[in-house]
Write a structure and sequence with these properties.
This protein is α/β, with parallel strands linked by helices. Helix content is 36%, strand content 20%. The protein has a single domain, classed as Rossmann fold (3-Layer(aba) Sandwich), CATH 3.40.50. The protein has five helices and seven strands, in the order E-E-E-H-E-H-E-H-E-H-E-H. A five-stranded parallel beta sheet has the order 5-4-3-6-7, with helices on both faces. A two-stranded parallel sheet has the order 1-2. Strand 6, helix 4 and strand 7 form a beta-alpha-beta unit. Helix 1 runs parallel beside helix 2, helix 1 crosses helix 5 and helix 3 packs parallel to helix 4. The longest helix has 16 residues. The N terminus is likely disordered.
Amino acid sequence: MAFLFYGYGMGQTRKTIAVIDGQGGGIGSTIIKRLREALSEEVEVIGLGTNAMATGVMLKAGANKGASGENAIVQTVKKVDVIAGTFSIVLANSMMGELTPRMAEAIASSPAIKCLLSLKVPDVEIVGTAKEPLPHLVEQLVKRIQEIIAP
């Protein structure tokens, strides 16, 4: 006789969201705090930083786990359900050069759904987006992620 159990880690897994940020990790930590308030522990949140400082800030904000650097980002984005961050995470050499071409390619090519904030990036104009304060954009991002992961 065989039994089949459903639950986290047994036949059914919870959704995984990768939040990617660089420099000081402030935007990533803001996203993670709001995700935690809205979704609690029903999702796994991974903080991926282009540097250790950004990763540390995202872990303090409530990420379940974190990793730093190019290879960590390239490998992890292949395995998540949703990627969240600013538009610059798909632009090679953005974040003052912290985001490498290999990272940008891996993120853009990932099968995960990308939820990106349209914040100003030097030398890039995104036409058709409203200029809103960061807290409003983060609220919209979290609402959209809730819609995506809803059963």
